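Our consortium's second objective concerns turning raw sequence data into structural hypotheses that experimental partners can test. To show how far this objective has progressed, the report includes one record in full. It was chosen at random from the queue rather than selected for favorable results. The single chain below, 302 residues long, was entered without modification.
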Amino acid sequence: MRRSFRGAFALTLLVAFGAARAENLTPEASAAFTTMKKALEGGDVDAAVAAGEKAVKLAPSSAEVFHWMGRSYGSKALEASIFTKISWGKKCRDAWERAALLEPTNIGVRMDLIRFHMLAPGIAGGDKEKAKQQAAEIAKLDAGRGHLASGMIARMEKDLPLAEKEYRKAYEMDAVRGFQPLGMVLIEQKKYDDAFTLVREASGKLPESPWPKYVLGRVALSSGRELEKGLEALDKALAVPATSSGVVAAPDPPSLTALHWTRGLLLEKLGRKPQALAALTEAQKLAPKNEALAKDLKRVKG
C-alpha cells in the first residue's frame, strides 16, 4: 500500500483507540475482542490479528468485532513486506465490508471503508468512487456525519479549504464529532488564530470532553504559541476519568498514547528534557512498537 495510507491510517488508529465496545458477546468472545483492542493499541499487531481471528469465529455476527478485525488487518498491512501488503489490505477491506453488511447503520465502519478506498491503491482494492458512495450512504443516515465523511475525502484529496468547509458544517450540526477534525484541518493550514478561537468556543460547548484540551495541545505544539496553556490542557485531559459523562457521550476520546506523546513534545519545546523523556517513555509503554514514537524518544534522549 502507498506510504500515505500508512501514515493516515496509523494516525487514525492512534488517536481514536479505546472507547469502542462490542455488546452481547459470550465471555470467551468478549475476552478475545478485548485482547485484540489492547494489543492493537500497544502496537502488537500479530497478537491483535490472532485474538481478532479467534473473536470473529466466536462472534460471527458481531459488526463491531469485524470492524476491529479490519483495523488489525489494516495495521498488519502497514508493516508487512511488499509481497504480502496487498493480501492483508484485502483482508482489511473484506472485514469492514462484512461489518457493514452485518450492521448497515454503523457509520464508523463506513468511515473506515472511506479511508481504505481513498488511500489504498487500486491493486489492493482501493476505489475513490466507492469512497464517495459510502459518504453518500452516511449522509442518508446522519447529515452531520455526512459532512464529516465529505470533509475527510476532501482532506485526503488535499483540498483543505473544501475539507474545512465540510467540517464547519459538521461542527455546526454536531459539535462533539465535528470539533476535532475541524481543529486539525485548521492546524494543517496553519490557521492558528482560527484554531485557538475554535478551541475556546468548543471548551465552552464541551466542558467535560478531552478533545478541546487535546487539540489545544496540538495547536500549541504546531504554532509554538501558548505552550504552557497547551501543557496544562493536556494534563487536564489526562485527568478526565474514563467514566466521565463527557467521555462516554463523545466519540472515542484521544488515546492515552496520543496525549502522553503530544505532552512529551510540548515539554521538549519548553526545554524540560527530563519531563519530556518521562512523558514519551510513558507513551512508549502504551505503544512499544510505534516506530515514529521511538524516533522521537531517541531524538530527545540525544
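The partners drew two points from this record. Residues 1-18+26-107 form a domain with the Serine Threonine Protein Phosphatase 5, Tetratricopeptide repeat fold (CATH 1.25.40.10). Residues 1-11, 13-19, 243-250 have pLDDT under 50 and may be disordered. Both points have been shared with the crystallography group to help prioritize constructs.
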